[in-house]
Amino acid sequence: MSRRHRTTVRAMSDMNLTSMMDLTFLLLITFIITFPLIEQGIPLNLPTGKTQVLEIEDKPAVVSVDKEGRIFLGVEPVTLETLEQRLRTMQTKNADLRITLRGDADVNYGAIVAVARMATSIGIKKMSMATRE
């Protein structure tokens, strides 16, 4: 006759949170590192000039033109026609839309003028140009 030993299985009442905490801190560090890059847009060699810090309550749309003349809305590359459509859409949601033009110091001046002319033609009245001191 064989004897069987019965073992009871008890449920664990605590949970190991170490891996979840590691993941949380990893995500936090990732956001801390990438947030300044998202805020600034694409890297440009901005022209120097005397600047005045603007007190703006709402966040402006950032339009950048790199030295090859490519246009970006935020960090997304767009054509001038696509930019016009997107700005019109943004303007219907916010009638007081502001844009910040960021142009590389080596860009053809005509590309910046084309963007500014297009923004003015669709009714955007508040525009600023980004420079570095």
Low-confidence stretches: none
> What is the 3D form?
elongated
Beta-strand content estimate? 15-25%
- For the biggest β-sheet, the strand order reads 3-2-1-4-5
The helix tally amounts to: 3
Q: Could you estimate the helical fraction of the residues in percent?
A: 25-40%
The biggest beta sheet is recorded as: 5 strands, mixed
Pairing-aware structural class of the strands and helices? alpha/beta
Notes on the structure:
- It is built from three helices and five strands.
- By secondary structure, it is α/β, with parallel strands linked by helices.
- The longest helix is centred in the first third of the chain and has 23 residues, at 18-40.
Features:
3 helices, 133 residues, alpha/beta, 5 strands
Write the SSE topology.
Elements: H1 18-40, E1 61-65, E2 71-73, E3 76-78, H2 80-93, E4 98-103, H3 109-121, E5 126-129
